[in-house]
Design the sequence.
């Protein structure tokens, strides 16, 4: 099994404010890693460093064997930011046109081909939105927009999905369906990085958890995470894991 991301002794600051301190972890090909921690703990910053959107102040981050900040094959990474669903409200394009954007890195100066359209068809089908392909992005629900952005990443033939709280503002039923879809994509071999606040949802779907608050308090499987003191250490001693059922 190859390593997709390797982080060694990473530290990062915003000016004089320390965001992350001495983080080391690896993400193997085909993993489903959940990032969890309180607000302001550095989760989004770490995600950005992992996919090369930021450069560490200290330490190293390699992405597919190359320095993450210098990685040039952006089509291999599907990044859906926390505000992606909000941006969709103002996009004057259809679902299909949005997903077709994922082919642009492969198209270059040539024309869109029949093969490109087949790949788009397959991406729409994989996330279950074929029936929405002609609908405007602005007319979709939050969950439908997230599926559209995932489909765009699949159309680009991404090997890695990086998702920052992808179900914020999504109803419970759609959220469950969304995570079931992620499970299927992960089973097909796509590596997934996920920021999620809901411990119960997180541990139900991911196979590894990184719990942090500036420092890394746990990186391992879900069972060892739930048996550890990582939640109390990262969130404070009054915090605990509450299991609950999702509709």
Sequence:
């Amino acid at each position: 099994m190859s390593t997709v991301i390797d982080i060694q002794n990473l530290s990062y600051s915003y000016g004089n404010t320390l965001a992350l301190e001495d983080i080391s972890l690896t993400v193997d090909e085909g993993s489903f890693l959940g990032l969890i921690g309180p607000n302001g703990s550095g989760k989004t910053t770490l995600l950005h460093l992992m996919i090369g959107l930021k450069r560490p102040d200290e330490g190293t981050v390699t992405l597919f064997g190359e320095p993450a900040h210098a990685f040039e094959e952006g089509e291999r990474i599907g990044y859906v930011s926390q505000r992606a669903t909000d941006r969709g409200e103002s996009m004057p394009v259809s679902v299909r046109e949005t997903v077709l954007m994922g082919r642009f890195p492969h198209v270059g100066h040539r024309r869109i081909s029949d093969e490109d359209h087949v790949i788009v068809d397959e991406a729409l089908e994989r996330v279950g939105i074929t029936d929405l392909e002609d609908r405007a992005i602005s007319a979709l629900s939050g969950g439908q927009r997230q599926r559209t952005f995932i489909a765009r990443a699949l159309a680009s033939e991404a090997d890695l999905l990086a998702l920052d709280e992808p179900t914020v503002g999504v109803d419970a039923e759609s959220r469950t369906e969304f995570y079931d879809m992620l499970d299927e994509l992960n089973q097909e071999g796509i590596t997934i990085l996920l920021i999620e606040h809901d411990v119960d949802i997180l541990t139900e779907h991911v196979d590894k958890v990184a719990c942090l608050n500036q420092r890394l308090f746990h990186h391992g499987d879900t069972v060892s995470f739930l048996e550890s003191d990582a939640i109390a250490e990262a969130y404070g001693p009054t915090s605990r894991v509450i299991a609950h059922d999702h509709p």
